[in-house]
């Protein structure tokens, strides 16, 4: 990618990964991603904020060469994960006097994951500042966005917040700043769902602390810079709040059509009574889309047939993921069908044990749905509608 200037003497020197389709060997990337790094040339010191994925380190080095960077004072490692710090070992070889600025936990993790010598690290504490001459970096230690080592850096002179994984979005673009805010909202939400949602309560506190800062630009390490910063800050306020929407998300799988008929019946009743529904057929659905839908959903209903005495594996997988990303979903239900017996409902309840949601009475039937099943689904729909009205 080209080298672009965010503000005067602050350069974007990272890499756009247009072709990557999977992150963490798990998350689909419909539009690739980027690994952003920023070079700040202060009047006295030069700092590189974040390195990038080791697969792309040549691009970072090329950018530094083109900018005629012969000396780096500080390599600021806001987060140890390899997509942001993987190129640090190479940079430490190229710039022998560079010091890695990190948190205490970051120093430990940089040593364990990347073999960075603690002697080359400077541990930063919360609120500490680092002067680069005419520009300053002010640090805020923010564990769990994304690992326990994470911190943010704020440059008061330029009013930029370098947020690393926080406020990011996975997409490659030639735009330095967000131009399509509708697209940003969709992709940042999907990213939030998978990466940040489990740490919602910590983020609420960080958002409060950030209110004290005057922020014009948020420069995350994935996706374009966000200006005005309030665009993404406001979205995060909504996503991390306890507010949910009048929405029922129903991921389901059906081998012979029984569960599918149950799901469609429930969905129709809900929709006819003014509840929004999102259905996901798990044989084709994308996990990222399901996770994104859970950011706002008030209710999650799993539609699951029994396979070999337990839940169908596609449904077990979604239950596991929902449990892992810990959405603010308030109600959780299970509907489905079995042939002769098994532990499907119990297993699903075990798989979702960490979810705070209130459990609704399951509608779990033998064989194909009949009149009684549809009555039970109508009753479930009424319970959902009443519960939604309470919120
Ligand atoms: C591969 C396979 C394994 C199954 N294993 C079980 C089982 O262990 N226990 C059970 O009660 N039913 C089992 N069944 C039956 C289904 O749970 C039952 O047919 C159910 O109604 C399927 O719902 P569907 O039509 O939505 O796929 C199995 C079916 C298949 C195809
Ligand atoms: Fe990360
Ligand atoms: Fe990352």
How is this structure best summarized?
This protein has 391 residues and is of the alpha/beta class. The chain has two domains: 237 residues, Ribonuclease Z/Hydroxyacylglutathione hydrolase-like (Metallo-beta-lactamase, Chain A, 4-Layer Sandwich), CATH 3.60.15.10; 137 residues, 3-Layer(aba) Sandwich (Rossmann fold), CATH 3.40.50. Helix content is 34%, strand content 25%.
Structural class: alpha/beta
CA-to-CA gap between the ends?
47 Å
Q: List low-pLDDT spans.
A: none
Strand order of the largest sheet: 1-2-7-8-9-10-11
Q: Determine Rg (CA atoms, Å).
A: 24 Å
- Chain-averaged pLDDT: 97
Query: Helical element count?
Result: 12
Q: How many domain modules?
A: 2
Global geometry: elongated
Structural overview:
- The two termini are 47 Å apart.
- The protein has a seven-stranded mixed sheet with strand order 1-2-7-8-9-10-11.
- The protein is α/β, with parallel strands linked by helices.
- The protein is 34% helix and 25% strand.
- It folds into two domains: 237 residues, Ribonuclease Z/Hydroxyacylglutathione hydrolase-like (Metallo-beta-lactamase, Chain A, 4-Layer Sandwich), CATH 3.60.15.10; 137 residues, Rossmann fold.
- The mean pLDDT is 97.
- The chain is elongated.
- Strand 1 and strand 2 form a beta hairpin.
